[in-house]
Amino acid sequence: MSLRFASSFALCLLLVAMVLPVSAQQQETEQEADAEGEEADQGTDGEEEPEPPSVRLVHFGPDNAAGSLASLYPDQALELGQDEGAFTGLLKREGTPERHGGVLIVAPSGQSPDQGVAGAIRSQLPKAGWMTLSVAQPSEPVPGIPDRVFEAETAGSGGAEQDDAGTDGEESAQQDAGDGNAEAGGDAHDPPDITIEVASGAATPEREDDWQQRATDRIAAAVNALRNENVGTIVFVGVGDGADLVLRYASANGATLPPDQFGMVWINARLRPPFSEGLVAALGEDYGVPILDLYDRNRHSERAEQRSAAARRGGFAAYTQSAIPVPRGGAAREQRRVPARIRGWLSGNLESEGGQ
To answer: 265 forms bridges with which residues in the sheet?
Structure first.
């Protein structure tokens, strides 16, 4: 019995010696797995971190705003110009049996040919028998970012500009704070005041000769397109600073335009020198081209009054100025009063029958 008992006891010891290392290894493995799970839970709150969505942003700048016109208006988009001067205009034919003429619309800088008041005019006048061609301006030079100037000043240097009452109160507070710092044994000094000055001279840059030439070539290409349609009467409509462009082209090329079949419409005109400084000096006295000068009556325009006074002094034969509500923003696209006012002026001054 003793031999059998000894053999059984030795076998048990052997089994225990084999089981203990395996159990210890399993415990270590489980502890490592638990630690990794806790780290994962802390990082993601127990959820898988989703992959970020793929987002693609597409932006058409002012010069490339016409890039989407062909897809929006495939039956009206008209490619004009050549090479680097190529651009897209919107040609809308008259919706009446008779055609009275063609209207070239120049949108303000930074806007597409179908935006704002320009879009309202180009879509409304064809209903009255006028073919419209709307174009955008070339992109303008971007003004440079002004330099920032950092100037360090010693602490307390700005105190002289403060009033006495405020200064006394602040000095007392600073002395109290200084006594506290001294008692604490601190030797820290006040940090210097930093003044950031933005350099001046960040105004909108002038339009250079290169830009003026590109803009004039764009208008010339649009005029040729209307002539190819045999419109007869041609009317230039300039919105905002587009009025400056049509005025420059008209004054330089007036001899090539058909007499008694040419006119201009300015809407909230923003003119540049020399026209902003004096219409009579730039165009001459007794200027005979019919002009309709529209401006927003909800905003007092001193420049509009100056243009009207100059036209009276210069004896302009067919100058008319009117003040009407001119909406801005998204509502301008659905504007009807401005096109109606232009339509009435055209019927009394320039309406004619052109070729079909």
So the answer is: 237, 292
Q: Which two tokens stand for residue 67?
A: 């890039």
CATH for 217: 3.40.50.1820
Instruction: State the Cα–Cα distance between residues 235 and 122, nearest whole angstrom.
Output: 12
Q: Which long-range contacts (CB under 8 A, 24 or more apart) does 181-189 make?
A: 189/155
Segments forming the whole domain that contains residue 284: 73-139+204-348
CA dist., res. 90 & res. 226, Å (int): 12
Q: Is residue 124 part of a domain?
A: yes
Report field, pTM of the whole predicted structure over 0.70: no
Nearest Cα neighbor of 260 from 280, 283, 288 is: 288
DSSP 61-127: -TTTGGGGHHHH-TTTEEEES-GGG-EEEEEE--SSSS--EEEEEEPPTT--TTSHHHHHHHHHGGG
| pLDDT per residue as tens digits for the range 112-154 | 999 999 999 999 999 999 999 999 999 876 555 666 666 655 5
Among candidate residues 102, 134, 172, the one with its CA nearest the CA of residue 350: 102
Q: Is 263 left (phi over 0), alpha (psi -120 to 50) or beta?
A: beta
| Window from 41-50, 84-93, 296-305 with minimum mean pLDDT | 41-50
For residues 140 and 271, the answer to whether their CB atoms sit within 8 Å is no
Q: From CA 31, how far away is CA 36, in angstroms rounded?
A: 9
Q: Write out the H or E segment, with its range, that includes residue 25.
A: helix 2-44
The neighbour count for residue 311, using CB atoms within 10 Å, is 21
Q: What is the pLDDT of residues 310-320, one digit of tens each?
A: 999 999 989 99
Residue 181 phi, psi dihedral angles, 5° rounding: -65, -40
DSSP 310: H
How far is the C-alpha of 215 from the C-alpha of 136, rounded, in Å?
9
Residues 318, 288: contact at Cβ < 8 Å? yes
CA-based nearest residue to 265, from 125, 139, 126, 140: 125
- Determine the Cα–Cα distance for residues 111 and 131; give it in Å rounded to an integer: 21
- Report how far Cα 16 is from the mean position of its chain's Cα atoms: 82
Look at residue 273 and tell me if it is in a domain. yes
Is 271 inside any structural domain?
yes
- Contact at 8 Å (CB) between 113 and 122? yes
Length of the chain: 356
Number of domains present in the structure of the chain:
1
Q: Is residue 90 one of the residues assigned to a domain?
A: yes
